[in-house]
Design brief:
Its main location: membrane. Keywords: Membrane, Transmembrane, Transmembrane helix. InterPro entries: GLUT (IPR045263), MFS_dom (IPR020846), MFS_sugar_transport-like (IPR005828), MFS_trans_sf (IPR036259). The protein is mostly helical. The chain has 2 domains: 111 residues, no CATH class; 35 residues. The protein has 9 helices and no strands. Helix 5 packs antiparallel against helix 6. The radius of gyration is 21 Å and the shape is flat.
């Protein structure tokens, strides 16, 4: 969501920071799960409940956030909602360049055919990319990082 609603000049930064926070969350889980902190048998309920705090914050704040402007324009075709979301997220400035980019993306998406999973697997042009994704995902799952 953050990567999609951010202005184009900040989109790469917003998308790359999510990896940092995933890693930070895993590290914090490892640290707080130590026996000396919250890893003891009597503190396990508190450790497990700590996962609910970010979810609760998200549940409370999400209704106040607007929908993603690209989603409103490209999926729903809601031009007024799109403009309102842009103003709410980015302020009242001049955002015509970003709006033009989203409109170009919408026009490009109109001309592309959406493939089913079976068509994607059968398509020779995507075969090497699929091989790489399967190999990388498999090695990540089998390397033991989740156990660490």
């Amino acid at each position: 969501y953050v990567g999609e609603i951010s202005p184009k000049k900040l989109r790469g930064f917003a998308n790359s920071t999510s990896s940092f926070f995933w890693t930070f969350g895993k590290a914090m889980g490892q640290i707080t799960g130590q026996r000396e902190l919250l890893g003891g048998q009597s503190l396990w309920p508190m450790l497990m409940a700590s996962c609910g705090f970010p979810a609760l914050i998200q549940l409370v704040t999400l209704p106040f956030l607007p929908e993603s402007p690209p989603y409103l324009l490209m999926q729903k075709g809601d031009h007024e909602g799109f403009k309102k979301a842009i103003r709410q997220l980015w302020g009242e400035g001049h955002h015509q360049a970003e709006i033009d980019d989203i409109m170009k993306e919408k026009a490009t998406m109109k001309n592309t055919k959406i493939l089913s999973v079976l068509e994607l697997v059968k398509e020779p042009a995507f075969r090497w990319q699929l091989y790489m994704i399967v190999i990388l995902t498999g090695t990540i799952q089998l390397c033991g990082i989740n156990a660490v």
